[in-house]
Design goal:
Helix content: 25-40%
Radius of gyration: 18 Å
Structural class: alpha/beta
């Protein structure tokens, strides 16, 4: 049996007095798994990822990460859990006062890796995603697609145990989208569990991994798409 590194049990949530966006959502994330989360706009895909990276506390249910009940452990221990998770946000969340290479290398610096080694790894990764000529640029000068690629490089540089990516191909063309998914695949082969929200049907056909569909507050497994040629 595969090791479970994430688990939602009976999770429900609503914002203020609005309608419930989740109604008893339950599923597991196995170590080394690769899944897509699909659903219409507004179905709760982004909120589900926020719950998983501890950016949003659900109203009901429980969330377990790496064997820990996140509702019961001490708040001071939550950052240790977050360090095991890489996140690609739709808003990018790059630091505007830092250069691209400083943004991408920051997670390594936080972990005590020296600046020379951090820059080496960050530079190689940025070169791979097509940003080798933007190392010293600042985020405000980048296009949306360039910011997306920088954010992805930052999320994967530490080889996290769990990668959560919210519409990571939404601001890039099909060629770059395929390249980024191949990067996620390579990361997955090293043992990282990958969970990606997307509505890109071409990507779903080209990368036929299991899908969790969100509809009317519930989640269910879809059959694997037939691989596109």
């Amino acid at each position: 049996m595969s090791e479970v590194i994430g688990e939602l049990l009976g999770v429900g949530h609503q914002y203020d007095e609005g309608p419930e966006i989740f109604k008893g959502v339950s599923f597991c994330i196995e170590k080394g798994s690769f899944r897509f989360i699909t659903g219409l706009s507004g179905s709760g895909k982004s909120s589900l990822l926020k719950i998983l990276y501890l950016g949003l506390k659900p109203k009901w249910g429980s969330v377990k990460l790496f064997g820990k009940d996140t509702f019961q452990i001490k708040p001071t221990l939550l950052p240790l859990l977050r360090q095991k998770i890489g996140v690609v946000f739709q808003e990018f969340n790059l630091l505007d006062h830092l250069t691209v290479i400083d943004n991408v290398s920051l997670p390594l610096r936080v972990r005590g890796i020296d600046i020379k080694q951090s820059y080496k790894h960050a530079g190689e990764l940025l070169e791979w995603v097509g940003l080798g000529d933007c190392l010293k640029a600042y985020p405000p000068s980048l296009s949306g697609g360039q910011k997306q690629r920088a954010a992805i490089a930052r999320a994967v540089i530490t080889r996290p145990q769990l990668l959560l990516a919210d519409e990571p191909t939404g601001n890039v063309d099909d060629e770059m989208a395929t390249k980024l998914l191949c990067l996620f695949e390579e990361l997955n082969k090293t043992g990282t569990a990958v969970l990606i929200t997307t509505h890109n049907q071409r990507i779903l056909k080209k990368f036929p991994y299991p899908q969790l569909a969100l509809k009317e507050g519930t989640v269910f497994q879809l059959p694997i798409e037939k691989k596109a040629s």
